[in-house]
Design brief:
This protein has helices at 41-59, 72-80, 88-99, 116-130, and strands spanning 2-12, 15-25, 28-39, 65-69, 105-109. It has 132 residues and is α/β, with parallel strands linked by helices. The chain has one domain: Ribonuclease H-like superfamily/Ribonuclease H (Nucleotidyltransferase, domain 5, 2-Layer Sandwich), CATH 3.30.420.10. Strands 3-2-1-4-5 form a five-stranded mixed beta sheet, sandwiched between helices. The N and C termini lie far apart (37 Å).
Length: 132
Amino acid sequence: MIEVYTDGAASGNPGISGAGIYIKANGKQYEYSFPLKMMTNHEAEFHAVLKALEVCEREFPNEILSFRSDSQTVVQVVDNNHTKNKTFLPLLEEIRNKTEKFPYFFIKWIPEKENKNADKLARKAIQEQRSM
């Protein structure tokens, strides 16, 4: 099973944003930091899940995925497979399409203090955009 920690951050709301992904797999740790376009913090959280799924498709195909996020909004929307929010709906559909490629996909909410690695990586992506 692959443990995937995701976090999205935005500097401003909306603002410059980034996605951080921290993965524990086969006794190793992997870190990814992705700059994102201007968006809200909630949107960045969804995009972090999408980026993590892209990484898993490439690096860990056919594995069981256990995602963790400190975003209650993302976890509720993905876990319930439903949202009325017009901004989140296409993101949910994209997540749904990507998770179908894996035998099992789980997502659970964790407190911020347990997601420090992914948070650091999301903030790093914002800093990298500022220094360009």
